[in-house]
Task: inverse folding
């Protein structure tokens, strides 16, 4: 017997529709033998925008290809899980799409012991920046320091050492 899916992601987030997006869920009850993922645009009416078609797979994930959705829209998605002839559809999950922000470092340091990095962030949706996170990487792309989420309008971070 199948039960409603849980741990559905993405949920209540905004992402850039011009990139691939992985949708995941936890199947509950009998083993899933197939699934179908649906995405509806939500405006005055719900319009089916994406249908994966029935995919024979026990995997509880699906990649929606880049540009299958449009940016700056509200959507709802659901997944239909199948176990042979039995099926169950999940609840509807809300998501939004938006053009990714542009972030430019205002300047970069020469060799100094401490430097305050500042950046300019431009959001295509004309909303203000609410939080940011500076992450310092080495030349091999390893994280040296993650400064965590900082709430504010003007991205800056003092780096010492």
Result:
């Amino acid at each position: 017997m199948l039960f409603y899916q849980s741990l559905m992601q993405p949920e209540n987030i905004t992402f850039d529709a011009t990139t691939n997006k992985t949708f995941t869920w936890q199947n509950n009850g009998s083993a899933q033998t197939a699934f179908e993922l649906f995405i509806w645009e939500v405006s005055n009416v719900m319009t089916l925008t994406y249908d994966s078609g029935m995919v024979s797979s026990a995997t509880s994930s699906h990649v929606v290809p880049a540009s299958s959705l449009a940016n700056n829209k509200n959507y709802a998605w659901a997944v239909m899980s199948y176990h042979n002839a039995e099926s169950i559809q999940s609840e509807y999950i809300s998501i939004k799409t938006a053009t990714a922000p542009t972030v430019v470092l205002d300047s970069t340091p020469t060799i100094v012991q401490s430097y305050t990095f500042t950046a300019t962030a431009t959001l295509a949706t004309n909303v203000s920046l609410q939080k940011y996170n500076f992450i310092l990487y080495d030349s091999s792309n390893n994280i040296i320091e993650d400064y965590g989420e900082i709430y504010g309008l003007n991205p800056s971070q003092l780096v010492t050492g």
About this structure: The radius of gyration is 21 Å.
